[in-house]
Design goal:
alpha/beta; Rossmann fold; Alpha-Beta Plaits; 4 domains; five-stranded parallel beta sheet
Length: about 525
């Protein structure tokens, strides 16, 4: 147990050090300071648990010091020691939740007694905190275990429903094979800033729903299916829940917290044994949402399956490729996708068929170009991102990116000298349009259809700087400009360049400019 004594009078400190029986109360180390500046430095560098502090001092009061301690979240018990019987001092000490308030003259025995009580309370607080964290850990592991078990069941990886119900009952959840259940599939996409890790998303989603559905605490379960999809599962109640209003509140809270778009797919009431089949239907509805529509997507609001696919004029587009009208084809193909979307015909089936037609058209086109490298469409051997090329049918936005890439590729092949310049333009354009996000090499590689390793080599060769260093420099330049020219707080500026971790942002900023973002802001707003 470490103690810091703060008083502007050396004789007072010397008297306390000599007069208190330190062995009796088991104080390990005693630190001293004669003003709050010295005290702050000691608190910052040492593990201080107890503070014995004068109130009136020339360079700042003991009350100011303890207020600073609380603001910086140090866990320190404070005993105030003063010769002034000013009621406002005592009132402020109580407000700050100081442990004790000793009015001089006071005996060393009384100081010793107060210190011992504080030490006893610290031991109690430590024990309570340890047991609380232990209980919290058990609860956390219980939720993780339950989510993992139900994920296997919902995805039909574990088929014995009676065994699943038995496991769930051990975890204090009262579910039976024929329990009527309802679900909401939660889909997260288009993150604006740094994407949260799955574990953090899981606990945040669980907490939000438990706050919204207080009558179901202990009865609702959140399951993480994959990086984009979560399931809310709960037993149907005797009184029908106003779930739609709760879903609206969930979206408002979660969209602001995660900074992304959210689509919710509510299920019909289903008995627990038939839940896996219902999850398959929810997954199908999510796959249909290729236009990435957000909001509450009831069955009636989702894109209807079975709409007739009207193929584009591929013969005309093939002629465009032969004659080098790549920009015209690019424009018409994107307009076609927009018309399909606006007419309500665009779903996963239609987009798959369009993707198949378009990729065939493109591959036939490059087959006739003698100077085109065949490794473009050879999986595992290419400078290009084969998987991204072949899986662009998952959303209209990705399909449009494929169209832009393929037409720029062909245009570059017509002028081989400018091909790298064209690729770099696409890369830089993507980076500058997504500065507010936590963009990674993988994100950029998928957007421009390049192999990640090749992307890094190309960028270093063309720009003379590593890709990650360039992104960080550009983000910091934008942040520096915002700090100097706007009234945004440092945390807002950090979020605008894709940082959710303030400490990480501050370290990166100081590494580049040699000064902290807070200091920059202070200098320019004096």
């Amino acid at each position: 147990m470490n103690l810091l004594i703060v008083d502007d009078q050396p004789t007072v400190i010397e008297g306390i050090l000599a007069g208190v029986n330190w062995e009796l109360i088991n104080i390990d180390k005693k630190f001293t300071a004669y003003n709050i500046i010295e005290a702050k430095n000691i608190i910052h560098t040492q593990q201080i648990e107890l503070l014995l502090c004068d109130i009136e001092m020339p360079m700042g009061s003991g009350l100011d010091l303890y207020e600073w301690v609380l603001e910086h979240h140090y866990t320190i018990k404070c005993i105030f020691l003063t010769a002034h019987s000013d009621f406002s001092y005592a009132q402020k000490a109580v407000h700050l939740q100081g442990f004790d308030y000793l009015l001089q003259p006071v005996t060393y025995k009384e100081i010793e007694s107060s210190l011992q009580k504080a030490i006893d309370q610290i031991k109690i607080d430590t024990t309570v905190k340890r047991y609380y964290n232990y209980a919290l850990g058990l609860k956390k592991r219980e939720k993780e275990t339950l989510s993992s078990l139900l994920r296997e069941y919902l995805l039909a990886l574990k088929s014995d429903v009676k065994e699943v119900v038995q496991y769930i009952s051990v975890l204090s959840y009262d579910l039976k094979v024929d329990s009527p259940c309802e679900m909401v599939m939660i889909q997260l996409f288009d993150f604006e800033g740094e994407r949260w890790e799955n574990e953090l998303l899981f606990y945040a989603i669980d907490n939000i729903w438990n706050e919204l559905l207080t009558t179901l605490i202990g009865k609702l379960i959140v399951i993480c299916l994959d990086s984009e999809h979560f399931i809310l599962l709960y037993q149907q109640q005797n009184e029908r829940l106003d779930l739609k209003q709760k879903m609206i509140l969930f979206m408002q809270t979660a969209e602001q917290l995660f900074r992304c778009k959210i689509a919710l797919y509510p299920s019909k009431t289903t008995i627990f044994s038939e839940i896996p089949a219902e999850v398959k239907r929810l997954e199908k509805r999510s796959r249909q949402n290729v236009i990435k529509k957000d909001g509450i997507l009831e069955v009636d609001n989702t894109i209807k399956m079975g709409t007739e696919y009207i193929s584009p004029d591929c013969n005309k587009w093939a002629q465009y490729i032969k004659e080098g009208y790549y920009d015209l084809l690019k424009m018409e193909a994107c307009q076609y996708l927009d018309r399909m979307t606006q007419s309500g015909r665009m779903n996963d089936e239609a987009l798959r068929k369009f993707h198949k037609d378009y990729v065939y058209l493109f591959l036939e086109g490059i087959k006739n170009c003698g100077n085109v490298k065949s490794d473009l469409y050879m999986e595992g051997e290419s400078d290009y991102n084969y998987e991204a090329l072949m899986n662009s049918y998952t959303s209209v936005a990705r399909m449009k990116s494929l169209i832009v890439f393929t037409m720029n590729y062909l245009k570059g092949m017509d002028n081989q000298e400018n091909v790298n310049e064209s690729r770099m333009d696409e890369i830089l354009d993507y980076i500058h349009k997504n500065m507010q996000k936590n963009i990674t090499r993988k994100d950029i590689a998928e957007a421009v259809y390049l192999n990640p390793e090749y992307l890094s080599r190309l960028f270093k060769k063309e720009k003379g700087i590593k890709l990650s260093d360039y992104i960080q420099q550009e983000k910091m330049n934008i942040a520096n400009h915002l700090l100097k020219t706007t009234n945004f707080s440092v945390s807002i500026v950090a979020s605008k360049v894709g940082y959710s971790n303030f400490s990480h942002f501050a370290q990166s900023f100081k590494r580049i400019f040699g000064i902290s973002p807070s200091e920059i802001k202070q200098e320019n707003h004096k």
